[in-house]
Amino acid sequence: MRVLGVIRLSRETDETTSPERQRAGLTAWAVAHGHIIVGWAEDLDVSGAVAPWERPELGRWLGDQPPAPFDVVAGMKIDRISRSLLHFVQLIDWARERGKHVAAYMDAVDTSTDTGELVAKVLAIFAEFERKTIAARSADSRRHARQEGRWHGGSIAYGYRKARHPSGKGYVLAHDLDALPTLRGIVADVIDGKSTASIARELNARGVPSPRDHAAARDGKTRAHKDGTPRKPQAWTDTTLRRMLVSRALLGQLEHMGRVVRDTDGLPVQRAEPLIPEADWKALQHALDGKRKPKYRAAPAALLSGLAFCGEDGSPLHFHWMVKPERNQEYRYYRCSGRTQRGLKCEAKAPRAETVEADALAVFLGMVGDLEVMERRLIPGEDHTAELARVDQALTELRDDRAAGLYSGDRGTAEYRSMYLSLEGKRAALAELPNVPDRWDMVPTGRTFRETWDALATVEERRAFLADAGLRVNVHAEPVRTRSLFPGEPSGPATGGRVSVEIPHDLQRRVLEHAARLTSGTP
């Protein structure tokens, strides 16, 4: 008979039913009975509760067009095929309807006879009971580990390492002092306005090991392919950084499948000391949110990319460059997108980028160069506002989970009520306390715009500085001879050539106040 060998393992570290042992046993059984193995369905790190049709490998063979014809679905034991009675019975029925049968040689199961099918279903009952017992025991073990402050296993977030529990029993998560400076530097850079893509490039250029490579080196492991050949170092990417920076693991909280794991009181499980303060976490998420939907795509090495607009129709100016190797010359321009993309009859010709940038900078620094740069900084609340917000969020998520059917049955209802009452009690107690919410303040930096500009080294840093200042550059078809500094104000000095600039109202007000002080002689 043609046999499909089924191999399943919940955890690849389980040596008692390793893939190699399962494969060798099935091969020996097939040879002894004169069968031919036509294929393997090997699903590793897959729970026995997952339906056979939903498994990556076995599911392919159970479809209408399997990779090869087969007569028998065979596993080492029933629990390697499934630990769910319902799924196993469904598989038996599916096989019978198609003239196939199911076998598990170590359990002496063969559903090709009525007696064999009966024995298989009885053994499947015990397999499902064992799965539920293991799940309950594992849940109790995790709960007990949390109560004692121990780490129960699982992936370790970048910035942490496992360390022995002070009692000597088990492990806890401690700060990884080799990775922590890199992590906190990344957080500070994002809060300061750097993009995750540029940070990833810098980390790769400096040769900083990626989280996976760092963990392998720290734990003395070698990352290799299945054939034993070493893997190439993994690079930092924008996606890697974002996934790391939005994870609540930075606060020492436990997540599973992208959701926060909650304790019996309804609050997030705290399994380690936070890697960064909560105030930095909030500022980090605020910075990341602001970068998820940029209004304009920044072109590389273009000072005014996303900041320059056509003075005739208001369309963004796109940065273009052209290299002529035979002349060893490079040409950089800003072109009206309304003319190149939408077919508008814009009269403005594409100006040289060097001219536009120099004129815009001269006008901008001429207005604000002597003003002090103000920095937007998060001032954390001095009371329980953040804690109250966490409790409210936990209540909302708990209600959503209940509505989604996650707390069904008598036990689930009891757990839901217990957590909800606990959270309501916390909220009532916090509501009695005075609440001063976090706020953003503009804080003086002690540096003028001109001093800050001169200290910046790269085009990307200077462009980010102009963007933070709210600069908008308008490039006109003809030179702008005289133009008022701001709408409604008296005419000011001539702008730079075909370029005029706009700045936010708060910065306009500061420029006018500074000019008034200079006129009156007030310091």
UniProtKB/TrEMBL annotation:
<protein>
    <recommendedName>
        <fullName>Recombinase family protein</fullName>
    </recommendedName>
</protein>
<dbReference type="GO" id="GO:0000150">
    <property type="term" value="F:DNA strand exchange activity"/>
</dbReference>
<dbReference type="InterPro" id="IPR036162">
    <property type="entry name" value="Resolvase-like_N_sf"/>
</dbReference>
<dbReference type="InterPro" id="IPR038109">
    <property type="entry name" value="DNA_bind_recomb_sf"/>
</dbReference>
<dbReference type="Pfam" id="PF00239">
    <property type="entry name" value="Resolvase"/>
</dbReference>
<feature type="compositionally biased region" description="Basic and acidic residues">
    <location>
        <begin position="211"/>
        <end position="230"/>
    </location>
</feature>
<dbReference type="InterPro" id="IPR025827">
    <property type="entry name" value="Zn_ribbon_recom_dom"/>
</dbReference>
<dbReference type="InterPro" id="IPR011109">
    <property type="entry name" value="DNA_bind_recombinase_dom"/>
</dbReference>
<feature type="domain" description="Recombinase">
    <location>
        <begin position="157"/>
        <end position="294"/>
    </location>
</feature>
<keyword id="KW-0233">DNA recombination</keyword>
<keyword id="KW-0238">DNA-binding</keyword>
<dbReference type="InterPro" id="IPR050639">
    <property type="entry name" value="SSR_resolvase"/>
</dbReference>
<feature type="domain" description="Resolvase/invertase-type recombinase catalytic">
    <location>
        <begin position="2"/>
        <end position="149"/>
    </location>
</feature>
<dbReference type="Pfam" id="PF13408">
    <property type="entry name" value="Zn_ribbon_recom"/>
</dbReference>
<feature type="region of interest" description="Disordered">
    <location>
        <begin position="207"/>
        <end position="234"/>
    </location>
</feature>
<dbReference type="Pfam" id="PF07508">
    <property type="entry name" value="Recombinase"/>
</dbReference>
<dbReference type="GO" id="GO:0003677">
    <property type="term" value="F:DNA binding"/>
</dbReference>
<dbReference type="InterPro" id="IPR006119">
    <property type="entry name" value="Resolv_N"/>
</dbReference>
